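Morning run. Coffee first, then this:
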Amino acid sequence: MNAAAPRTALLTLALSAALGGFVGTPLTAEAKTRPAAAATVDIPYEEFTLPNGLRVLVHTDRKAPIVAVNLWYHVGSKDEPAGRSGFAHLFEHLMFNGSENAPGEYFTPFEAAGATDMNGTTNTDRTNYFQNVPTTALDMALWMESDRMGHLLGAIDQKTLDEQRGVVQNEKRQGENQPYGQLWEVMVRTMYPKGHPYHHSVIGSMNDLNAASLDDVKTWFRTWYGPNNTVLVLAGDIDVATAKEKVARYFGHIPASPTMAQPKVDVAVLASNGRTEMEDKVPQVLVQRTWNVPQVGEADADLLDIASHVLGASASSRLDERLVHRDKLVDSISTSNYGSQLSGTFSIRAMVKKGVDEARVEAIIDEELQRLIKDGPTAEELARAKTDYRAGFIRGIERIGGFGGKADALASCTTFTGNPACFRESLATVANATTDSVRAATAKWLGNPSHTFVIKPGERKPLAEEPSVKPAPFELPAVDAKYSTTASTVDRKLGIPKVESFPSLSFPALQHATLKNGSKLILAERHDVPVVNINYEFAGGYSSDHGGKLGTANFASQMLDEGAGDLNSLAFKARAEDLGAQVGAGAALDGSNASLSALKENLDPSVELFATMLRAPRFDAGEIDRVKGQWLSGIAQEKARPQTAALRVLPPLLYGADHPYGMPFTGSGTEASVTAINREDLLNYQKQWLRPEQATVIVVGDTTLAQIVPVLNKHFGDWKGEGAAPARVEAPQVARPSASRVFLIDQPGAVQANIYAGQLVPSVKDGGAVQLELSNDILGGSFTSRLNMNLREDKHWSYGAFTVVTQALGQRPFLSIAPVQIDKTAESVAEMQREIADYSSGKVPATQAEVTKVVDNDLRSQPGAYETARAVMSTIGGIVRYGRPDNWVEVRNAQVAAFQPDKANAAAKTFDANALTWVIVGDLSKIEAPVRALKLGEVTVIDADGKPVAGKAK
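And here it is:
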């Protein structure tokens, strides 16, 4: 649970939420005045197994012409021999570097076909690869997946191994470079004894990664990557007959690998309580108490989910009530229960307020835990947790693929329990849970010894690594004779199957009405899951803070759900959880919105709660003070994170401090401005900007116009604004600097530098906006873009480098971004500068192949991109905020289809490599001199507030 504000996110989320304001909005709600019956939710499937052991699950969902292809290999870091930690994850990276019959980047044909939700991940227990593809591209996807399963080793050489080793090591540096970033490594070493499969982290040690050899790669592949150790899920626009034919055609010839024994379940309950204290460059103390608990698939693991909800994982939890609201000792408190194959992890995490003795917090955590162990949850808490669990499942199964979609649910259940429908057992366990059963599970597992980790402000010390040891000799076992292959009918010498046709996008029709209060209504029907999503779109936003107190718009918006009507903050949150609803509000540069996500069966009471939040927020003085304290702590956290530190100082440097956009992109304001915000400021913002006139209600979900209009009019119809509505704040034009400027922020001890290069480009309403965005895609907007292929795949100095053109009514920021290893900072800056200069000057113009790739990916990905109500809501939100026509998708698609190299190169001239504003966050003792030697422009050392550090400009 995220109780602290400002709710800072890392780069992409921060930018999309701050500048666009649509991506992060919750969704879901229904439309009848009479409660609907609770919907039955399930993931029906059929299955079959090939003679070579490949187990295949098929789920049919015809809502969109796309298919999720999801492969789970039953191998993870638990299977790594001593001396080769991190190898499973390293191998996952190698699998994206081409196969014998498809050399080159694995992503390339998928980008051309318009794949979405494409990635690969590794954890302790499994490695998975997944993508959603247009139905007509299924043969290509299955050919590609089968080629890397059956024909990989000939494509891997020492160069590829070294390249991906470097990428993974930068991924490790990127994680450790964050505040509190050493905790996970220390935690797994502490919670599991040496020799336990979970004793080391998934990403492994630098020493072991350096020791990995080409022979290790080949042995690992032959041991674990056979069809008999794999589950394939196909979900979406497919049936089992089609699946049987295609899967047999592409995978049937691949021989099985040895049948490897899985490690035995070993929860490794601690023998005694323990404590580890660490120091880090952090703004406040973190306390985390952790237990080893039962593995995934156990009923007690599901019951501990309920215990977690009651104790600290919900906004109305006991620890929230006690530590955040009543005693005000922490800025945030959360609990989590994460199940793995051999064991589970239950944690309680608190961010302790400055000046508070963490011992007081720990004592109260234990007091509340013992109360739950003794008495269990109340009937009300139990019902609330059950509703939340069911609502989460319903929202999750809207997606067929990607992280946490239906394909993931089936694959996970099959891999870890052998039963594809184990999610049904979990749903039943939770539905049938009682106070006694939850109490018993809590007592059994959280009554055991735990380990407390405390991270305090101070100097970070590098974690010591043990030398890599030579793995024990390993002889590959024989393959089980029960497995066989079928003759291949695919001539792989012909290359990747061509995708000859593509499904067209069917964007839902936009229906219009006007509410009695004057608000416009736009409805897009989506009947895939029993959920209705409502966004109330208003003017205002960060830019309305201009001339006042920065952060007011976002603070006022996010205070709306901190109590309304007769409900105080906790009671309001509890009511939302009782309904299975998600209610919230937030602001962006050019506007704000309030959002509701409700179960269809609870639409009317959910809309009533939503209306109370907007019409009668309490803005209680005590809650304002509490949230203000959380915001101030959040600003300190933003300054400690290299990404958000840069996002705070960039806007004033790009726009000027007196510009309406010249404020932190996080929307959190400054310590001084937030401290000065009072109740009157919030009431004024509500009165001026959160009003029905000129506002638009967007509804996406399982309802009709005839159903939703009466519900909205019932609760909003007589709502009226007071006085005249203010005019929208206009953002004046800003001239570019005459030369590039470089600003450095010191982060002593950093193992990475975070590089940002920014520049203002024309508004989203400019006639060439679409062309500029497509041109940017060539430079750095996709995995196979120029910048990422250079710094990640070629140089392997970065885990990922990209460029983005954000959304804004005024001039908008173009940003080039790269977190890089510290000893390659200057070299990376030089490469970024060169890539931008070569492209914008026409020295290395866009090619037809690059343009075709960008156009194809954009147009062909849309059936998958609009799979969810969230995505549809985002596009409609853009139509409203930026004054676009209803048929904007078609208008934009026509511009995309007409995009050619001449237009790409004309748009690229918008970028000026000689007028960039650079912000680089890193250890100045290592990067300052090399960066100055580049002579990009005037160099100024600034602090996290953007103020020059005396004597450091040159």
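Confidence is low (pLDDT under 50) at residues 1-35. Good start to the day.
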